[in-house]
Amino acid sequence: xxxxRSALCGALTLLAxxxxxxxxxDEPYIRVGAVDFYPVASRPGSxxxxxxxxxxxxxxxxxxxxLVARAPLARDAIGHVADATxxxxxxxxxxxxxxxxDGHDGVARGELTVVEHDGRDRHHHEPDSYPAPPGRExxxxxGREDGGREDSREDDFSEGEHERHEGRMxxxxxxxxxxxxxxxxxxxxPGMPGLIVGGTGVLIAGGLIWHRRRGNAADGNDTxxx
Amino acid sequence: MSSEPRTxxxxxxxxxxxxxxxxxxxxxxxxxxxxxxxxxxxxxxxxAAAGRPPGRALPPPHRPLPGAPPSALTIRTLGLHAPVEGxxxxxxxxxxxxxxxxxxAVAWYRDGTRPGSRGAAVLVGHVDTERAPAVFYDLGSLxxxxxxxxxxxxxxxxxxxxxxxxxxxxxxxxxVRVYGPHHRDRAELRLITCGGEYDRDxxxxxxxxxxxxxxxxxxxx
Lengths: 226, 221
Known about the structure:
heterodimer, A: alpha+beta, Immunoglobulin-like, 9-stranded mixed beta sheet, 27% helix, B: 221 residues, alpha+beta, Sortase, Chain: A, 2 domains, 8-stranded mixed beta barrel, 2 helices, signal (chain A)
């Protein structure tokens, strides 16, 4: 039984490795310098795939305070890649990642984004003395928010200059358009120059016909009068 | 062919006019092909250079201001004055925009930096609804050197200078570059809306227009 399992595992692993070069570029990597991360934002304690291109040797290493350890990257068909683990005690934010290879430190640098563990906006260690304003979570449909009401934690900062992020950083593109006024791409519409050329063709054709007719009529009249 | 002299003259005039129009059209066509889309719809990439000549320096950054939440956004060059309201994140991790029923409102990410404080404050608005232009329809026509002002709840105004206008494809989206600050010790602002091509099958735009600005002045309103 064990050997069948091992064989299956082995076969699946081979398939996975075989598939990687073909599909590696289809994954939604975020490119920061020459270092790519997948997924684009990681939770503490999770795995992140780190990919770098441009190193010549067999080995490369990713170094970052956000990772549990220095991560050795192995060469594959298109560069160097590793599955690294994000520390579980790291705070949300972006952390520099340094790539060492070919005998040099820091040949490439990237930024690893760490987002909060749970999915909510609220921080766990928000002070208890600041109760959330009523209806804060459902503010969407309530009309304009009073900006002054939002920041019950304003007293937390004596100077706004020392402000830190309370919540996690956004990570996704904005869905901010319904398409009702979308501008056509240049090759969709015929465009003014195209219309002018077409119109000119019609004019020339019409003018020639008119010209011919006048000429013929003059000739015809002359002949007829005789 | 025994044409009268008059007709021959008309013929020449007609031919000349036709050639002139043809050449004009070809010239316009060539210009459009090389210059690309109009200012209102920038092509993917960085269009900031289309503003002030690159050699001309931008104003120095202003020291960050005491924290205060935003109440309104003014962009004089666009004739824009819009209310600003606080929002959180969508389940996907984007700043939630205002509902389409209020297309003139601008959302501010309330759990992030306040406009005027150190860091990057994020404002999001719709470029259009399903039928008509919305508050950030002309955002892509902003240029390096333009001014953006935020009215704040404490009566002050934070004035920002645009330093970069980019179109970022959604499938090659770098959240650190878009949402994160570009320089330490500066108060920065991001104005974001949709842009690029509209994908009718997916009912969404392919890119975001991202305006990056930094604090250069302060006043009262």
